[in-house]
Amino acid sequence: MNKIASLTSLHVMNDEDFGPPAQHQCRSFRHAARAMRVFAGAVLPAILAACAVGPNYHRPQTPTVEPRNVNAHFTAAAPNAAWWQQFGDPVLGRLEARALADNLDVHIAIARVRSARAAFSEAQYNYAPHVTLDGSYSRSKEQFPGFTTSRLDTTSSSVGFDASWEIDLFGHVRRQAAAAGAAVGAEQASLADAQVTVAAEVARNYFELRGTQRQIVVARDNLQNERAALHLTQVRYEAGRVTELDTDSAQARLKATEATVPLLEAAEKRYGYRLAVLLGVSPGSLDAELSAVPVQAMTAPLPIGDVSALLRTRPDVRIAERNLAAATERVGVATADLFPRVSFTGFVGFLAGDTSQLGKAASRAWLINPAVSWPALDYGSVHARLRAAKAEADGALSAYQKAVLTALEDFEDACVGYSTQETRLVSVIEQAQASRRAEQLAEIQYREGSINFVVLLDAQRTLLQAEDELARAETAANTGAVAVYKALGGPAG
Predict the structure, then answer these.
(1) Do the Cβ atoms of 480 and 414 come closer than 8 Å?
(2) Distance CA 384, CA 363 (A)
(3) What is the model's pLDDT at position 79?
(4) What distance in Å separates the CA atoms of residue 438 and residue 367, rounded to the nearest whole number?
(5) DSSP string of 297-364?
């Protein structure tokens, strides 16, 4: 508050306004100091005894987690915080480390945490007086009082400390600081959520990329087989041993397989580009690092640890809980507005009508100005704000309850998905093995002339589908494991 301006506006100041001797000014400063000590002795006990109005926040009791789909595909062993390391893929490990360090969503979340911490520090400073150093100088020509046309040149200058302090009798300041502290917790949980999400997205896109590369290899291998089959069919056709229908069928199958390759190559590029952006680099920057290599599917029981801590570790649940805490504290802030607010303002410094006298003993000045404000005649607005704060708190409670249910749903869905994919993977592996044996046997019999080309073509089509399905199933098993760890919401490393 600018008490300097209010002081200088009381009357026109000139040199005669500062007439008391220096000794009297010194006594005035001593009186001011004694007054401040008396004031502190009277007010501090009130501060210590003050009680904050409004609801006191209590963390909601989380329900007990009773897993319904944790079976033989899972183990209670504690997973590594860097859960992706158990896949034994060094390339994935390097990508994860770079993403957690350079991902832009993580950087945004870190900046928001810093901002929330700064706001919390600012709120805590409201417990103490706010002191600013102010200086001013003014010169004006004004009319003499009364009916006259005479004018008077006036000057005024001041320099000193301007202070303001709200005594937190009913918790207005305290509730604001608590709400700011809860906001810090929410942003910290948001940072954890960003890290978990980035880690999961890197792993998921990586496994999708490797699965697509595997499908491309399978398609190209089958293209070689189908070209060889087409050549053999053409030779047999020229020898009159098969009909034109056999050659046309072989040609059609070859072209159908060729048509799948561009789509798979485009998907490979998309996954690579997505990984690059997740790592905070330009699309295409990782192409050299992401050349095709074989990746093993996750087949061992998945360590998930103690799932009873699920609702305490999930970042989205923690965000909702901290938002609920902040909303509850803001109800306290609105409630405190129903009660009087006591504040003190003061000034200690120098005031002079002549700049040359500024800083001398005769220009010393001080001011203590206690004030009480109470919206006794504005209860409508205050109560409206209080109703709005309570409504926001009710919404925050519902958001928290929704986050709890969503966390349980995500975990159960992830467990079901992973178990299903692991069971399916066993069958698909056996299917692919049987298809390979059948195709090899059909090719031998076709060369010997014991079966027609339609049988061989059907065996080759079955093998292509089985190997493509195996690549998809292995990818699904790995991405299913990623979904489980994302649902657990544990630390990202």
Answers:
(1) yes
(2) 48
(3) 87
(4) 100
(5) ---SPEE---GGGHHHH-HHHHHHHHHHHHHHHHHHHHHHTTS-EEEEEEEEEEEESSGGGTTSGGGE
Q: How far is CA 429 from the centre of its chain?
A: 40
End-to-end alpha-carbon separation of the chain, Å? 49
Q: Which positions ≥6 away from 310 have C-beta within 8 Å?
A: 65, 407, 408, 411, 488, 489
The reported pTM is: 0.81
pLDDT tens-digit readout, 435-477: 999 999 998 998 888 887 778 878 888 888 899 999 999 999 9
Cα dihedral 312, 72, 480, 434 in deg (nearest 10)? 180
DSSP states of 304-317 as a string? Answer: ---GGGHHHH-HHH
Place of tokens 């005035």: 28
CB atoms within 10 A of CB 16: 7
Nearest-Å Rg of the Cα atoms of the chain is: 39
To which H or E segment does residue 156 belong?
strand 151-167
The stretches in the chain having pLDDT less than 50 are 1-33, 35-49, 492-493
Determine the pLDDT at residue 51: 67
Give which of 24, 41, 188, 32 is closest to 115, Cα–Cα: 188
Q: What are 318-377's pLDDT values in tens digits?
A: 999 999 999 999 999 999 999 988 888 888 888 887 777 788 888 888 888 888 988 767
Is 135:162 a contact under the CB 8 Å cutoff?
no
Q: Are 371 and 345 in contact (CB under 8 A)?
A: yes
